[in-house]
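Readers of this paper often ask what the protein records in our data store actually look like. Such a record has a labelled line for the sequence and another for the backbone structure tokens. Nothing more is needed to write down the fold, since each code stands for a local backbone conformation. The record that follows is passed on verbatim for readers who wish to inspect the format.
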Amino acid sequence: MSLPHNHTLVDAYARQEQDSRMKRLFAIALSLSMLTGFSADALAVNKDDLDKLRKTNECSKCDLAGADLRGANLSEANLKWAKMTAANLADSNLSGVNMYGAHAGHAILTGANLARADLRGVNLKWAKMTAANLTKADLSESDLLLTDLTDANLAGATLTRANLMRANLKRANLTGAILIRSNLIGARLARAKMTAANLTKANLSEVDLRLTNLTRADLTDATLWGAELAEANLSEANLTRANLKGANLKAVNLEGANLKETKFCKTTMPDGTKNNSGC
């Protein structure tokens, strides 16, 4: 029985390796497309809709995906249900804008002015909103999963039932913000200002609240499982029925705090001792 020549075997092996590499590359590309939620074709800018917005400030249900609107003045614009995926709105003026139900995942809103904006139900997953002005904006039921809100100003903002899971809110100003029933699981809030914030029934499990100012904050019925609160200020905060199982309260200021029916289980107290009274 004759055996194949060596070069035939080598060629066959090379083709097999090439096919395997192509399949891996295709799989990676497909995975990335699914993870990001959009493709290159989806980001083709609709020039007609872009011109309409610039001329009339009215663009409800428009396709503005991938649009370059850096520094644009869109104050009081109507962008209800608009598609704004990956649009660049850095340093733009969006004060009083109506973006109800808009899709703005991966959008760039760094330094943008969104004061008093209607952002109810907006999809802002993975958006970059560093240092954005969101004072008194309404973000009720919005999706801010993994959104970067570092140094953002959310004073007086409404975030009722908003999804802020794993969002970055380091040094953000949430003074007087309303976060009733909001989802903050795994969010980063180190050094944030949350004085008088309303966090009633909010989920703050595994959240980072180190050195955060929660003076007079309302955490009634809030869940803080495994939360990191080292050196936070909770003076005069309302923690009625709050669940602090596994939370770290080392060096936390609890002066004047309401701890009625607060649940402690495997909780590290301000003096470093463990409190298992509620286990």
User: Anything to note?
Assistant: DSSP finds two helices and two strands in the chain. The first strand starts at residue 267 and ends at 268.
